[in-house]
Amino acid sequence: MSALIWGVAALVAGIAVAGVGVWVAGRRHAGPPLPEPLPATPLQRLARRGLLVGVALVVAVSALVLYFGPERTFEDRPVRMGFTALLLAILLVFAVLSLRLRAWVRRGDGRLDERDRAILSGSHSLQSASILTTLVIWNIGLQESFHVVGAVPVFYLNLVFWSCLVVSLLALPLGILFGYRRS
Questions:
Q1: CA proximity to 70, closest of 12, 163, 156
Q2: 135 Cβ partners below 8 Å, 6+ apart?
Q3: 62-83 tens-digit pLDDT
Q4: Rounded to an integer, what distance in angstroms lies between the CA atom of residue 172 and that of residue 182?
């Protein structure tokens, strides 16, 4: 169970790195306050929708693993199928978000201006830092939990992969939304 606590810490830390990185960048580049808020751009609206759906799915999959435990999540067929369905939904949300962004970048129809493109490119660097932080914490946690045994159970390796995917899903729209706050 201690490895699961490390996993939760890895997820939280990965998302926290995204949030703190964006907050620091926003504080450093904060401009004067506007007299009235600007309307949301299509990129902002897409990021908000992706973040809302992503957070709901992350909460659901995390609750499933915490409730049943990692062993039962991967051994019990109905639980594993629910876990897999939630993860496939996360993949679908990430794919739709990524494909739509890619289409907008390639199309060049004016939907994304220079500012949108700069914010989008900055969000990817935040995404990779969040994933690396998640991997570091998982690595430390699994070493500490299974050092005596000398082997890590396979279901924890699956959780490492999926938690990196989840952090990636949340870091991209977070980076986009906070990129607008700082510009």
A1: 156
A2: 10, 160, 164
A3: 899 889 988 888 889 999 999 9
A4: 16
pTM for the structure as a whole:
0.73
The answer to whether 163 touches 138, Cβ cutoff 8 Å, is yes
Cβ neighbours, 10 Å, residue 151:
6
Q: Return d(Cα 148, Cα 86) in angstroms, integer.
A: 33
- Residues 27-33: contacts with CB under 8 Å, at least 24 apart: 27/182, 28/182, 29/182, 29/183, 30/182, 31/183
CA distance from start to end of the chain: 43
How far apart are the C-alpha atoms of 40 and 33, rounded to whole Å? 16
- The type of residue at 146 is F
For the stretch 119-170, pLDDT in tens is: 887 777 778 888 888 898 888 888 888 888 888 888 888 889 888 888 888 8
